[in-house]
Amino acid sequence: MHGRPRKAYKPEEEAASAAKAVKLRSLQNQFMSNHHAKIYTKEAIDLSTKLLEINPEAYTAWNYRKLAVEDTLSREESNPDLVKSILDEELKVVESALRQNFKSYGAWHHRKWVLRKGHSSVGNELRLLDKFQTLDSRNFHAWNYRRFVVELTNRSKEDELKYTEDMISKDFSNYSAWHNRSVLLSSLLAKAEGFMPNEKIPDEYKLVHDAIFTDEDDQSGWFYHLWLLDQTVNVETPLLTSSWPSHGSCINLSGGAGCLKDSSSSKLTTLCSDLGSFPLILYFDQAVGGVSSSTVTVDSELRGNEDLVWEPVSNKNSQVSSVWVAHLKFMSSEPCFPKEYTVKVRIGNSPGIVSSRGCNFSTPYEFVFTAHVHDTVREDSQEVVVSWTDGFDIWDAQSKDLNFLVNLDQQMGLKWRQEAIEEEIELFRALSDSKIGKLTLARLLMAKAMISENGVKGVHYEEILELYNDLMVLDSSHYHYYKDEHSVASLHKVTSSTESLSRHLFRYRDMNNSVCLRLNNLSLSRIASVEKLLFVQMLDLSHNELHSTEGLEAMQLLSCLNLSHNRIRSFSALDSLRHLKQLRVLDVSHNNIGEHSVDTTRYLCSSPLSNSEWTEDEVGRQMTSLVTKYWDAYFVLRDLNLKQLDIAGNMIAGDEFYTLVPQVVPTLVWLNGHRVRS
Amino acid sequence: MTDLPPYPPLDPTTFDLIIVGTGVPSSILAAAASSSGSSSVLHLDPNPFYGSHFASLSLPDLTSFLNSNSLSPPPHPSNTHDFLLSVDLVNRSLYSVEISTFEPDILGQHSRTFSVDLCGPRAVFCADESINLMLKSGSNNYVELKSVDASFVGDSSGELRNVPDSRGAIFKDKGLTLLEKNQLMKFFKLVQTHLASSLTEHDETAVKVSEEDMESPFVEFLSKMRLPPKIKLYNSPSELLFLYQMSLQMIRLLILVCRIILYGIALLDHDQDNKETCGHVLKTKEGIDRLALYITSIGRFSNALGALMYPIYGQGELPQAFCRRAAVKGCIYVLRMPVTSLLLDKASVRLASGQEIFSQKLVLDQCVTVGLESLSPLTDQQKETIRVLVPNEISSKEKIARGICIIRGSVRADISNALVVYPPKSLFPEQLTAVRVLQLGNGLAVCPSDMHVLYFSTVCDNDDQGKAALLSAMSTLIREQVPENLQTDSIVENDTAVTKPVVLWRALYVQELVKGEFGGDISSTSSPDGNLNYNEIVESTVKLYEQLMGSGELFKEETSQENTAEEDDGDDVIED
């Protein structure tokens, strides 16, 4: 069935096929007229049989037969023998059609439809399938149908698992069989009756090793291995990865735009908010829904927080997200006295947090932090330009300081997972000559890093980075994928220990010694490890190769962001910044915004065609043509309360655009380093 | 044989070619020469059966053939030489024989149901040239082949390891480590790409094995293939441990995979690791050719599972099939007709019946030779004519020790027809050459249903060395009949000994190796060699045919006239 070259037709064959086409066309016309006239006589049905015998792909004919069957059934419901004979006839037609072409979607679907009626015996189906699967063991239609029949017949999953094993041992280049095996195992492992992952998954590794090591050029084994790796690293049930504030941490809070003069550097995070509230961030290892004041309880003396509103930090219309945020008020209608408040957060005490795959958050978790609320110091708001070049102090952070900031992951410290990965790494070092071997080794090493306890030695980030460097050279057609993975590994490396992270941490004097993370010049193309960076207030990502700000939305404390000298191609790529309510300073100078007339990321976010709300607001009415032209900039900037924006060095930058910006962002004070006249 | 009624005289008395002996090379020659259409051929054999030293016989016939060919030739009464100058021909002995019967009663009942090969162990690869010749000549119509179920590599412990000879077999093999699987498959692939690239000459990028490598010893090439993958050094103890484990694995690999490739698949005789004792160091080119033969054999015929096949009713069917083909094409056959003397002025013979037959060219069986005493009166030129018949002491240094055992039961309960190879040094440290064992069962119609025939062979320099190796292989696979009074005590024997099959009959014989030679008017054919298949014999036969007939291809016209066999169906050749 595979690898058969197509042969050119000989003239006589061509003539025969032309004659066949004429016949088929007249048959089709007759059939269509029957169909339109809703004629379901025996002759008409036989005509459709004939048509399907010649061309099993005639989908309309299958649907016509469905209508015909329904028609008869509605009249003859009381006669079970007749019903059965009609349906058996249908099965026979499908079978002969499949003989003609057993990759015909219509035929397989029709068969399913007939069987769902429930009047036919399913006993023959597996026998028929065995016949088809011997002819072409990889045919995915047959495998698909097999799953359907197995469900109907209640055949045990264990038997089916054995079947896949038999098929694989006949020919292990059978991706369909491997795939079916992964489907079966997923459900068997989820049931967890006699199928414990810590026993079964190592066995599966052994099986797939035989395939991969015997023929490393065959991809089916590698695919299955990747699935197994995923099963090893990821846990079905959602987990809380990190939070801000983290457990045991202290934060300084102050209202007003101007801020504390005396904030000592020993106090860690100082947050000044003119909104009188601070964000509480929960970061899960996968997208979850159902985070609310009933599933998360917050106990504190801070008043006015009885009904906290939890919002998913993701696309507007999605109700699942891995990042959830609530804003805790510390200056409600009544003024708070300067004082220390203890805040206790409990998650998962009552059920309701559910992953997008339907698994419950089942391990209750609790964390406590202290908030110092300071007097609001009213000063004349200094409108200073935030400079990324000076004003930074090296922060000689002690590891204990950072441990407060960087929340230790709540690890599923399961030994077998670590052992399994360790064994895989040892084995696959031997295959690291090939591209897929290198990639798998890199993935395994990365998996080891992910499930190791923080600070555990022996994670070879250097090796991972080198592997991806090799791959970028060896396999240039997948360069961007390797580049992204390289970036992820680099960021994991930076955040892997207090020592390495503190090398990038600074204090910015002019803004209450805000915590600044400088990750410039790392040739990053993708953002990762954000869960460990939730405390960061200033982020310098300049001189990298970023295409998008995806991932930054979780950094709710971020007030200054430097993205200059990157590869951002449009404002749509900055869409995630709209979630950053504290963001005041944004530098996107020297990017490629506006360079490409056709921006593919446009299709991913809402376009003006589907959204007419902009015509209703003030700016939209006043500057319709500009808004239409710069609609993507408009949609992003509109939601940002920026004071300072640097956008020079982009294609989009120009007088026309500059006239629009202050209209869309009324809070803006500095544009490209110049005070905006107001 | 002498009391048989005398033959009527042959008519005609002149032929283009006379062939004496019906072994495999002679039969191919007869079939090819007859099929060419331009030659009249007379094919003679002193024996009452086809096949000569390649025949399959019943047990009594086998015993008497071995014995009669092991005796020194009786001193021939010197004929008075008449005006046509002639020399007397004598049979030279090829064998030294030892036969032991352990259960004469049982064997007596069945003696005629056996069909035992003289030249065993012998099997053919599906892609062998002998199979090609059969298909080309149409002699495949007279013989059915069945596939040999399995092949094993054995050692002195009695353990039989499957030879993982295909992608699926490597995947399923439980004995190999992952790395061994990887290396073995890589090696197969290299051979396959090499094979593919040698078929399409112009694709220069595909050639993987360098010219230099092709001339190097195969065993060196194999060790080059197993170079450990590039490992980066890290200064942690776990890395060092890993490296250490890797090197241990490599050593294991050296022993196992190498053995499988060299002796289980390439089927070599000599110890390739030891250059001093090795009689023949295989070049990479030859090694790859052997692997290619193995690989192309697998799957050539849809109903043959493995690489090897065996003819139903025994190897003797093969020469007989060619002879039948030759007869169909007009070759004249006379069995039970010894040739007594050679007429020297032409390539003509005097038969035992006394009749003189004339021909241009004469091809004689390897065991026909000239009495040394009749050489002395000849002129130098006459000596040159019969050069190929004079026993050449130096050339036949190497011998083949063969053994046949009739056993009750099977060496592996689940498998009837199997090849077992004992690589050099696997049985005992002094074992210099590989011992091959072929077990065949009732499915091939060679023995009664509850028994198997086991063939053993090894190449050796002298009788004792060869017999020692064979006996050692026999003792690991089978056990001798325990006398009745001792049997009760043997209950405490360990499991493997109990499950070993019992030997009922055994023959051990050492066969001389005689190479065929082209000698102008008078030529000779080769004796059975030490290989498993007929490739070298067919090769020398094809060469001899070209020299005799001055034409290139055997059975050229056959293929153009009739389309003999569809390879993919293969139904003509092999029974299901």
Automatic annotation (TrEMBL), chain A:
Keywords: Prenyltransferase, Repeat, Transferase. The keyword Transferase applies. SUPFAM superfamilies: L domain-like (SSF52058), Protein prenylyltransferase (SSF48439). The keyword tRNA processing does not apply. Gene3D superfamilies: Protein prenylyltransferase, Ribonuclease Inhibitor. It comes from the Eukaryota. Belongs to the protein prenyltransferase subunit alpha family. This is Geranylgeranyl transferase type-2 subunit alpha.
From TrEMBL, chain B:
The keyword DNA damage does not apply. Its main location: cytoplasm. Pfam families: GDI. Keywords: Cytoplasm, GTPase activation. Residues 553-576 are annotated as: Disordered. Residues 564-576 have a biased composition (Acidic residues). It is found in: Cytoplasm. Substrate-binding subunit of the Rab geranylgeranyltransferase (GGTase) complex. Binds unprenylated Rab proteins. PANTHER family: CHM, RAB ESCORT PROTEIN 1 (PTHR11787:SF4), RAB GDP-DISSOCIATION INHIBITOR (PTHR11787). Belongs to the Rab GDI family. This is Rab escort protein 1.
